[in-house]
Design brief:
Elements: H1 2-7, H2 10-21, E1 26-27, H3 30-33, E2 49-51, H4 56-69, E3 73-76, E4 93-96, E5 103-107, E6 112-116, H5 121-130, E7 133-134, H6 147-153, H7 160-163, E8 170-176, E9 182-185, E10 211-218, E11 220-221, E12 225-233, H8 236-249, E13 254-261, H9 262-268, E14 285-293, H10 296-312, E15 318-321, H11 325-336, E16 348-353, H12 359-374, E17 378-383, E18 389-395, H13 403-416, H14 435-438, H15 441-454
Parallel strand pairs: 2-4, 3-4
Antiparallel strand pairs: 1-2, 5-6, 6-10, 7-11, 8-9, 8-10, 12-14, 12-15, 13-14, 13-17, 16-18, 17-18
Bound molecules: flavin-adenine dinucleotide (FAD).
Flavin-adenine dinucleotide (FAD) binds next to strand 3, helix 6 and strand 10.
Length: about 475
Amino acid sequence: MLDDVTESTMDDLLATLANVVGDGGMLTGTDVSSRASGIWRSQGIEAEAILRPRTTEEVSRILAICDEAGQPLVAQGGLTGLVEGHITQAGEIVLSLERMNDIEEVNPVERTMTVQAGVVLEAVHNAADEHGLMYPLDIGGRGSCTLGGNIATNAGGNRVIRYGMTRDMVLGVEAVLADGTVVSSMNHMIKNNAGYDLKQLFIGTEGSLGIVTRAVLRLREKPRSQETMLLAVSDFDRVTALLKAMDAGLGGTLSAFEVLWNNFYRLVTTPPATQTPPLPQDYPFYVLIEAMGGDPQADHARIEQVFSEAHESGLIEDAVIATSEAQRRELWAMRDDVEQVHQYKPVFIFDVSLRVSDMDAYVAQVNRGLEATFGEYTNFVFGHIGDGNIHFAVAAGEDDGAQDGVKQAVYQPLKSIGGSVSAEHGVGLDKKKYLNLSRNDEEIALMRTLKRALDPNGILNPGKIFDAAG
Ligand SMILES: Cc1cc2nc3c(=O)[nH]c(=O)nc-3n(C[C@H](O)[C@H](O)[C@H](O)COP(=O)(O)OP(=O)(O)OC[C@H]3O[C@@H](n4cnc5c(N)ncnc54)[C@H](O)[C@@H]3O)c2cc1C
């Protein structure tokens, strides 16, 4: 059968694949083009078909057939990725995991959850919560993004400072290789050093080395206390001093340290944004802090003590401490209201990382670069500063063509300070051209070696991250 497929036309190939996925498992024509190609994209999906398998076995058969035919294939989850990793073009086929969304098991004793890759992050949160447990990954796209996409991008989010990135929350992975081989590495243990840790091949590799079909997640005990506060700070040196003071004083319970530069704070607390400003709008920096602990009374007393010590030592100008769950949610809703940047069109969003001690000078350098190139510009700055991760949303006039100049201003200064062009979101197509600013020739050569070994026909997400031949 496969020989026939090799010689077949696209129509024959699609007919073969339709047989694998059965009724409702394949979309073509306007059912493909009428689907938005991303959460913030108005363009429809451009591809020959969307395949929607239900089982690992079906994924395996699809890949075996496509590999034999040299047919490019791109995995898609919730389409919330921000670097065009999931984008397709004519001639390619989408492999959507949307129908593989079962939560197979929650084990409260082992504190693990076994899921299919298409499950939405919020469903994982809810299932863990029902058992008094927590899956710590939390990002703004929680209602749409899938565990497979989180794994493929090694998603980070708001609690990395305490719980690490997705890499630290996944114990096992089942993945299908380009030739259809199913590699079941569904480890349930925290410690397993019997040879290579194969799941790492599929975490953060953006669907370029295999399709993630199932995973074992590490859950944590649900915190019994959650303290959230917003602090106003007068300069960046005090922001970094506050980070140290909070981390040391809170004894390991600090779970978020988010910084909003003045212009981002104003944006998300001024209409049409729906949040009213919890603090006056004229401080240079705002820090959203969260601590999660196991003893509400003691945790509250401790955070109050750390707060007053920081206040006495002049680190804080002003503060609001959430006294109810509703207030806590409001503070987070303000931080998460990133969509407000789309009041500006076009706006270019960035996600980079660097040493915290380089950050203030780096932001100033980026702004100087933007001014030199564009004169007029707006650069909203915010980020997970506790993790050395900064976001920019840059508007520099009405010309879409400004993007290249903005990218130069943001990425180029990172090379000399050893920063990364991608803190969280991956490389996709969007950052491919800049990969060499953050990775040396030998690193990129090894990436190519891995790609060639696992996907010799180059069918998995071709052209993303780097060109296979280099
Ligand atoms: C409002 C908002 C806030 C966000 N905040 C954060 C944040 O704080 N931190 C952060 O890290 N990210 C953040 N993101 C981006 C983040 O990368 C994605 O939300 C998420 O991890 C991608 O999941 P997805 O299911 O949408 O994947 P998609 O967007 O569909 O795909 C992303 C990549 O993963 C690959 N992929 C998808 N599924 C699979 C699979 N099963 N097997 C192999 N490859 C696969 C795709 O080919 C593509 O390369 C945010 C996005 C939004 C919209």
